[in-house]
């Protein structure tokens, strides 16, 4: 448990050009708010506020940062900037968009597009009994288009889990929360340990961070698919490395889903990074190749249009 | 840019270390400098220090984030560093200007450019071979070129330390420039002082750097070897090694990726300054925060205005 909890900014608070509506989520590193801009468009604002380093008490606006924590607070801010830089460069329909970045109240804020819908986590919790395999393949294949874009920019997400995959009202997935996508934090600053979610994080995130790569995100994708079927995450990978209590999906869900899908999940969840799919593309290919009898819609897989758009936007 | 880099400087068996080395990189450009202050002259370490400091500072001023004209930049910094040493000697009423060798290498847009004066060397190792190396500005090298002596003779020649070009001193330096050289993934650039290449020799040096281990391991090993062979009077020995990687290569441990660096930020490693630089170097200043924010917003605007 963190020793302290930060107070969120109150509803109605005018933050720069935005009016805070309510708090959406609270993490160890930041608070996310729903807010409205001057035109009344809803946005999600992420406030950099690491629990362990800065404290905002009841009714206060500016967080208190002790002198000894100041360097670490500033260092963490660097990481927050890196997340911003990374996201600013990514323009993809399956990756959350950054709209603005500003400084206020002694800290910094990242404004993102607000998407209506709910997280895959919420969706699955409600509909697990009627979850269709086709739905799962569709969501993950399209979400992986976004992840491919992330990897193409030489970044890793490192915190993929059902609650970071957002389903818009039209069912298209968006990859959220790149808080962990900071490559440079790997070099080990003791004050700010890299964050991950047990159960979804790959074994190399716990130990041996030099082996991190696309296959680490792929482990988390496999764990997320597993969680969609099982209702809970697979056993923590760090515990699996000492004593593996993981029941292969091919065994646990035999007969309830196609063998091929279950095999894909087990393939992603190999403890040995080399035994997993080595690229998102390889995984996508497997996800759409169910069998010769059922063809998946080609639109899931192709994102030529968006790539072209990114390309044009760049020139 | 993606690369791994390692530098180390050792005193050998001398009373003081007159070698100075530094590397420095922005998001899109990288500079490495090795200077060997000349013993036998006064204040060799001062000359080396001035040269390295001057050249890295010039780089930080001009690489925003690229240097305009790399060859012109190298030419300017070498000449200006020479004059900075002369100015120092003048200010301090030194009877003669201190001297130093310099080899400096600039990398940007995937091309390497280097310049040198004296007998500190740069090696470019590619596919297991020495693809290129600088030619020492030494008498021995001249004699070697003219066929008066062979490599074996050069290695033991009594005048092998005499060089005819350096920064500082009474004569203008003769600086030699490389052609723009494209780098390929797996290329190793090694800059070193004669304290390293002298005792070890080119072939073993190559073999050691290409032994497949990371530079963080192979360079210390190489320096051990040089120090051992240097014997009771081992010279100061210094080396910077860089392994160039493809931009899309997966990040290995210790790999530097400048991808998410702010445009105007620099990372500098200068051994001799470590004590003075202090740990506060990690801090973000208010200016840097403003800079980062405006930069992110520029990137956002660039991608949304389509």
- C-alpha Rg of chain A, in Å? 20 Å
Distance between the termini of chain B: 27 Å
| Cα distance spanning the termini of chain A | 48 Å
Report the sheet-strand fraction of chain A: 15-25%
CATH architecture of the largest domain in chain A: Orthogonal Bundle
List unreliable stretches of 5+ residues of chain B.
Answer: 272-281
Report helical residue fraction of chain A. Answer: 25-40%
What is the mean predicted local confidence, pLDDT of chain B?
86
- CATH-defined architecture of chain B: 4-Layer Sandwich
By CATH's scheme, which homologous superfamily of the largest domain in chain A applies? Transferase(Phosphotransferase) domain 1
The major β-sheet of chain A equals: 6 strands, antiparallel
SSE-based structural type of chain A: alpha+beta
Helix content of chain B: 25-40%
Tell me the domain tally of chain B. 1
Protein name (chain B): Serine/threonine-protein phosphatase
Domain PPM-type phosphatase (chain B): 4-244
InterPro entries (chain B): PPM-type-like_dom_sf, PPM-type_phosphatase-like_dom
Pfam families (chain B): PP2C_2
Describe the structure.
The complex is a heterodimer of chains A (315) and B (306). Chain A is of the alpha+beta class. Chain A has ten helices and nine strands. Chain A has two domains: 14-113, 2-Layer Sandwich (Phosphorylase Kinase, domain 1), CATH 3.30.200; 117-309, Orthogonal Bundle (Transferase(Phosphotransferase), domain 1). A six-stranded antiparallel sheet of chain A has the order 1-2-3-4-6-5, covered by helices on one side. A three-stranded antiparallel sheet of chain A has the order 7-8-9. In chain A, β1 and β2 form a beta hairpin. In chain A, α3 packs antiparallel against α9 and α5 (214-230) crosses α8 (259-268). Chain B is 35% helix and 26% strand. Chains A and B meet through α1, β5 and α10 of A and α9 of B. Chain A: This is Serine/threonine protein kinase. Chain A: Keywords: ATP-binding, Kinase, Nucleotide-binding, Serine/threonine-protein kinase, Transferase. Chain A: GO terms for molecular function: ATP binding; protein serine/threonine kinase activity. Chain A: Residues 18-288 form the Protein kinase domain.
């Amino acid at each position: 448990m963190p020793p302290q909890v930060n107070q969120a900014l109150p509803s109605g608070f005018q933050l720069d050009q935005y009016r805070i509506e309510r708090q959406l989520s609270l993490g160890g590193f930041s608070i996310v708010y729903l807010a409205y801009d001057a035109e009344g468009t809803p946005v999600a604002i992420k406030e950099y506020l690491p629990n362990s380093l800065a404290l905002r008490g009841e009714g206060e606006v500016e967080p208190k940062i002790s002198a000894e924590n100041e360097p670490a607070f500033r260092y963490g801010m660097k990481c927050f900037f890196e997340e911003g830089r990374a996201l600013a460069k990514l323009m993809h329909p399956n990756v959350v968009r950054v709209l603005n970045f500003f400084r206020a109240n002694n800290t910094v804020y990242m404004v993102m597009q607000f998407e209506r819908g709910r997280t895959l986590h919420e969706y699955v919790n409600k509909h697990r009994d009627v979850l269709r395999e086709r739905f799962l393949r569709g969501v993950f294949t399209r979400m992986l288009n976004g992840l491919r874009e992330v990897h193409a920019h030489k970044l890793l997400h490192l915190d993929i889990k059902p609650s970071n995959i957002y389903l818009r009202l039209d069912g298209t997935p968006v990859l959220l929360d790149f808080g962990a996508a900071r490559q440079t934090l790997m070099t080990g600053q003791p004050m700010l340990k890299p964050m991950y979610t047990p159960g979804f994080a790959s074994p190399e995130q716990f130990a041996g961070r030099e082996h991190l790569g696309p296959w680490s995100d792929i482990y988390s994708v496999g764990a997320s698919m597993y969680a969609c079927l099982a209702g809970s995450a697979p056993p923590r990978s760090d515990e699996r490395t000492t004593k593996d209590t993981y029941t292969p999906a091919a065994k646990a869900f035999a007969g309830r889903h196609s063998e091929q899908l279950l095999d894909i999940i087990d393939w992603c969840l190999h403890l040995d990074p080399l035994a997993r799919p080595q690229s998102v593309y390889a995984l996508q290919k497997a996800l759409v190749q169910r069998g010769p009898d059922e063809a998946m819609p080609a639109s899931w897989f192709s994102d030529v249009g968006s790539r072209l758009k990114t390309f044009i936007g760049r020139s | 840019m993606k690369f791994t880099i390692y530098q180390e400087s050792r005193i050998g068996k001398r009373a003081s270390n007159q070698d100075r080395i530094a590397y420095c990189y922005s998001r899109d450009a990288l500079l490495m400098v090795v200077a060997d202050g000349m013993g036998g002259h006064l204040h060799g370490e001062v000359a080396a220090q001035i040269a390295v400091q001057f050249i890295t500072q010039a780089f930080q001023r001009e690489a925003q984030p690229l240097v305009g004209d790399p060859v012109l930049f190298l030419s300017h910094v070498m000449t200006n560093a020479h004059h900075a040493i002369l100015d120092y000697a003048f200010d301090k009423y030194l009877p003669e200007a201190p001297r130093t060798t310099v080899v400096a290498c600039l990398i940007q847009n995937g091309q390497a450019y280097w310049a040198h004066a004296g007998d500190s060397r740069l090696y470019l190792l590619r596919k297991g071979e020495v693809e290129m190396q600088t030619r020492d500005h030494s008498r021995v090298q001249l004699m070697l070129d003219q066929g008066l002596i062979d490599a074996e003779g050069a290695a033991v020649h009594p005048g092998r330390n005499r060089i005819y070009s350096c920064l500082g001193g009474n004569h203008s330096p003769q600086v030699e420039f490389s052609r723009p050289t494209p780098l390929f993934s797996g290329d190793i650039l090694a800059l070193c002082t004669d304290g390293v290449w002298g005792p070890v020799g080119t072939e073993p040096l190559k073999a050691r750097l290409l032994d497949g281990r990371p530079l963080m391991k192979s360079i210390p090993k190489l320096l051990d070897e040089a120090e051992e062979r240097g014997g009771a009077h081992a010279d100061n020995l210094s080396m910077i090694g860089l392994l160039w990687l493809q931009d899309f290569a997966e990040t290995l441990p210790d790999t530097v990726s400048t991808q998410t660096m702010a445009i105007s930020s620099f990372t500098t490693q200068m051994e001799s300054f470590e004590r003075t630089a202090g740990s506060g170097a990690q801090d973000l200043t208010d200016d840097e925060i403003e800079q980062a924010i405006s930069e992110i917003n520029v990137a956002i605007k660039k991608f949304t205005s389509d």
